[in-house]
């Protein structure tokens, strides 16, 4: 079964929290057996081997580019992360972290996180559509006046020349 509830898994992750994208394959994708770990693996005759495996997985996670988002994903997707190492945490440690999240944000802490994410996305979208300020509009107009309509791509020399003309125009204005 996939560790992240991918297409081949009968269990699906919370759609509000997709598994984070990694720019490179993660160690749990290339070496999944390092990350197999169930509650109780550190007891009995295999304890030493389990500790060694746990240490290797923790080291791998500490260098992972998505460790922070992986932990968040593992905490909100409890049914998918009952076993295994995620973001250097054991199942027992994640249970403790979930308790702390509930103490901090309330019993509906997952919904609170989802609402925070949604608000962040809306703020980012609004920022992308914020109209130019009066002074920014003036600069854009002046650029067209002194350099003519934008033609792309510009060579580095053309960029320098246009910038010099724009600065001269701003000084003169
Ligand atoms: S941090 Fe998460 S994604 Fe990265 S190696 Fe560890 S378990 Fe895999």
Write a structural description.
This protein is mostly helical and 173 residues long. The protein has two domains: 1-108, no CATH class; 134-172, no CATH class. 55% of the residues lie in helices and 0% in strands. The chain is built from seven helices and no strands. The longest helix has 20 residues, at 109-128. The termini are far apart. 14% of the residues are buried. The mean pLDDT is 86. The structure holds iron/sulfur cluster (SF4). Iron/sulfur cluster is lined by residues 26-28, 35, 60-61, 64, 66-67, 70, 86-87.
Keywords:
binds iron/sulfur cluster; 2 domains; mainly alpha; 173 residues
Structural class: mainly alpha
Unreliable stretches (pLDDT < 50, length at least 5) are none
Biggest sheet record: none
Shape assignment: elongated
Number of strands: 0
Q: How many H/I helical runs?
A: 7
Hetero ligands = iron/sulfur cluster
Cα gyration radius (Å):
26 Å
Tell me, rounded to a whole number, the average pLDDT. Answer: 86
Distance between the termini: 67 Å
Estimated helix fraction = 55-70%
Strand proportion? under 5%
Q: How would you classify the quaternary structure?
A: single chain
Number of structural units classed as domains? 2
């Amino acid at each position: 079964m996939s560790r992240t509830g991918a297409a081949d898994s009968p269990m699906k992750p919370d759609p509000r929290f997709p598994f984070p994208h990694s720019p490179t394959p993660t160690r749990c994708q290339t070496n999944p057996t390092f990350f197999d770990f169930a509650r109780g693996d550190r007891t009995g005759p295999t304890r030493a081997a389990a500790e060694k495996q746990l240490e290797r997985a923790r080291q791998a996670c500490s260098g992972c580019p998505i460790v922070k988002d992986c932990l968040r994903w593992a905490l909100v997707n409890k049914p998918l992360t009952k076993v295994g190492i995620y973001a250097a945490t054991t199942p027992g440690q994640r249970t403790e972290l979930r308790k702390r999240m509930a103490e901090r944000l309330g019993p509906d802490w997952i919904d609170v996180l989802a609402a925070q994410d949604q608000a962040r996305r809306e703020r980012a979208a609004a920022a992308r559509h914020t109209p130019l300020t009066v002074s920014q509009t003036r600069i854009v107009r002046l650029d067209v006046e002194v350099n003519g309509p934008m033609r792309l791509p510009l060579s580095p020399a053309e960029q320098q020349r246009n910038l010099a003309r724009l600065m001269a125009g701003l000084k003169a204005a």
